[in-house]
Amino acid sequence: MSFHSGTEQEVFMEMSAPPRCCICLDHFTSPVSIPCGHRFCLSCIGEYWRQCDSKCPLCMTRFPVRPQLNTEQTVHTGAPCDNNGSDPKSGELQQLQTEQTQHTGARWQENPDPLRAGEVPCNDCPEKRRRASKSCLVCLKSYCEPHLEPHYRDTILGRHPLVTVWKNLEDPVCRLHGRQLEKFCRSDQTLVCATCTQTDHRGHRLVTITKEAIKRKNKLKKSLIKVQQMIQEKTKKVEDIQLSVAIVDGAEKKTAAEKQAEGLIKNLEQEIVELKTRSSELEQLSHTDDHLHLLQRFPSLSSPLHTKDWSHVLKSLLHELQEKLEIPSRDPKLQ
């Protein structure tokens, strides 16, 4: 008899225990429900949907798109979807579960993950009072559980890599695995982490970041010399045009010549400004000791500037000035 009573008591205690998430098997953290009525931790169902199709882990109901997560407190916690509460014991258990959830929800509202010394705050919380639980490597922000909901629910945001909270999100890390970048893959021309070298980049031509940075720095210096030569050439062309216009006699003819040369000079000067900007960036990057920064910036600075070859236009203009305004050509190459 005592054994029977003990068994009943154990069953009652088990049924009366606070509800748990069926994914993590722990007490609910930021509980949410999905359209079929089942409840999970926000992070649990979010991570589940990031790895699998949008379906319920319990009843396997599939959703064509990620559904809206319901934060109401009075929802099912794992009973079958068609449970209408006709069983008195079932209804009694549901009431106990609802009371526990309401109590937990009220406590969460009063003390929502208070920030402690050394912890990373949520970037989207007012006054940053709640601690972050994940960091997004695309948004470059850290979020608490409630503010992570869009990343768990939205199809596009759901593809953003979430990692354990990072204090310095500006530091370069692997956007796929959230680990430190350690190698450079010459096969795919990209920086990779240790996990990358064992998965997608396994068997590729991998070198140290320092070795690749030295190679790229030499290329930067060659590019810098080429850009400086282009600046000198275009500056010389502007000077030639200005001098040719300056020696035109007569106010009327000079005005016509200036108008004719104005557009070409303006375009050349704009290209000179762009080339000087590129030259300054190349100069600065070629002297950096930050090899990671050099490899990340190199692609944008190694691409050629879209400058026009003005030789034909310049030759045509100078010949036109020579013929119409009767001035001698200064450059024998243009005759």
TrEMBL record:
Keyword Zinc: yes
Keyword entries, A-Z: Coiled coil, Metal-binding, Zinc, Zinc-finger
Molecular functions per Gene Ontology: zinc ion binding
SMART domains reported in the protein's UniProt record: BBOX, RING
Coiled coil residues, start to end: 217-285
Annotated ranges, domain RING-type: 21-59
InterPro entries linked: E3_ubiq-ligase_TRIM/RNF (IPR051051), TRIM8/14/16/25/29/45/65_CC (IPR058030), Znf_B-box (IPR000315), Znf_RING (IPR001841), Znf_RING/FYVE/PHD (IPR013083), Znf_RING_CS (IPR017907)
Domain B box-type: from-to ranges: 169-209
Transmembrane region(s): none
Compositionally biased tracts (Low complexity): 92-102
Region Disordered, residue ranges: 74-110
Pfam families xrefs: TRIM_CC, zf-B_box, zf-C3HC4_4
UniProt key word Coiled coil: yes
Record's protein name: Uncharacterized protein
